[in-house]
Amino acid sequence: MTAVLTETDDFVAALRSHARRYHDSHPFHVAMNEGRLSQDQIRGWVANRFYYQENIPRKDAAILANCPDRAVRRQWLRRITDHDGTAEGEGGIEAWLRLGEAVGLTREEVEDGRHVVPGVRFAVDAYVTFARTRPWVEAVASSLTELFAPDLMAQRLTAFERRYTWIDGDGLAYFRARLRQAPRDSEHALAVVTTHCRTAEERAKAVAALSFKCDVLWAMMDAIDRAYGN
Amino acid sequence: MTAVLTETDDFVAALRSHARRYHDSHPFHVAMNEGRLSQDQIRGWVANRFYYQENIPRKDAAILANCPDRAVRRQWLRRITDHDGTAEGEGGIEAWLRLGEAVGLTREEVEDGRHVVPGVRFAVDAYVTFARTRPWVEAVASSLTELFAPDLMAQRLTAFERRYTWIDGDGLAYFRARLRQAPRDSEHALAVVTTHCRTAEERAKAVAALSFKCDVLWAMMDAIDRAYGN
């Protein structure tokens, strides 16, 4: 067997290389995973990140609205169900609210967004706007930060369980669910992107979309870091 | 018991009064339900109406994308599943393609939209754009033509079964499904609209949205009537 790198391999490699721009290497995130954040800093991160969480189903619905492919829509719909749940008290957004309670925030102060700093709001809104206004395949490509998520989630779970023992372990259900969901989602998104992006230009746009998404996550971290110190 | 008309009753009555503007009274539709259409006219209607059908999930996803209420989103999602199905070969769009086959059209000529006339395209696109760009409650209100759909579907089923005996009855599964789905959907949409539209201005906008939707359906009929004669 000889290993021949195809253009698709190069494309996937270019996408995967963005792992180095993923927000897990942001100083605030490094500090979080090393157990160096205070309770107030953890609370600030959880409250701000909720704005991202609650906008995910709307971002995904915007992709659905732009996508003419029924088979892709059928699969993409599961992301919305994962976050919204199929009944009251279920789903990822609810799980994040419980994380909020586990770190000592009320549901109300998380849901009403009082702690959300402008930089986080702008970054999340930019992501939703991207999904609404860009071609749907680019929006799918922007979701590919999920390729890097499982490693981060595993690290984060370990860090939270060992270093932040003041947080009830039941509050970490969101991270555990994502360990299972993110690989399934990123595998589907990668298949969609490699199927639909055939020209150099289309592939460059997909890579740019993923780069943009890395910027979104990084800018959120910057804004949280600035607000809560490190 | 005294019957006291509340403002909500007046509002619901104003919405329901649009039944008289529903497309079932369009001459082409009257002719269809009276069994007076030729095979070519039925085919023209089925092929053109497909453009509406295939855009429904994208319209509904646009509403989801604009809706911040998780409970509403959870319920609204079922509309997308109804049309797209949960697996290949299921759902309302597939059922409409089978109706196309039952009336003598190939799947290909229905799916590629070659028979879709500009007036139908413009009307459907206007509806999708409305859902994308208007406040989500107005977009929900625009769906309330479903209040009038079950009567039409029942009439249409009878007409097709008795008058157009050249159409295989299995092809009518879409209409049968809507007999069950439309009342459930319109009941939910009406509850959303009456809950969220509390001021006179909000209610006027909801009524205007339903009026707009009646225009969409009527304009489609006009365009089909013009193209296929009556």
From TrEMBL, chains A, B:
GO terms for molecular function: pyrroloquinoline-quinone synthase activity. Ring cyclization and eight-electron oxidation of 3a-(2-amino-2-carboxyethyl)-4,5-dioxo-4,5,6,7,8,9-hexahydroquinoline-7,9-dicarboxylic-acid to PQQ. This is Pyrroloquinoline-quinone synthase. Its EC number is 1.3.3.11. It comes from Amycolatopsis sacchari. Residues 14-222 form the Thiaminase-2/PQQC domain. Pathway: Cofactor biosynthesis; pyrroloquinoline quinone biosynthesis; Cofactor biosynthesis; thiamine diphosphate biosynthesis. Belongs to the PqqC family. GO terms for biological process: pyrroloquinoline quinone biosynthetic process. The keyword Oxidoreductase applies. PANTHER family: 4-AMINOBENZOATE SYNTHASE, PQQC-LIKE PROTEIN. It is an enzyme of class 1 (oxidoreductase). Keywords: Oxidoreductase, PQQ biosynthesis. It comes from the Bacteria. It catalyses: 6-(2-amino-2-carboxyethyl)-7,8-dioxo-1,2,3,4,7,8-hexahydroquinoline-2,4-dicarboxylate + 3 O2 = pyrroloquinoline quinone + 2 H2O2 + 2 H2O + H(+). The gene is pqqC.
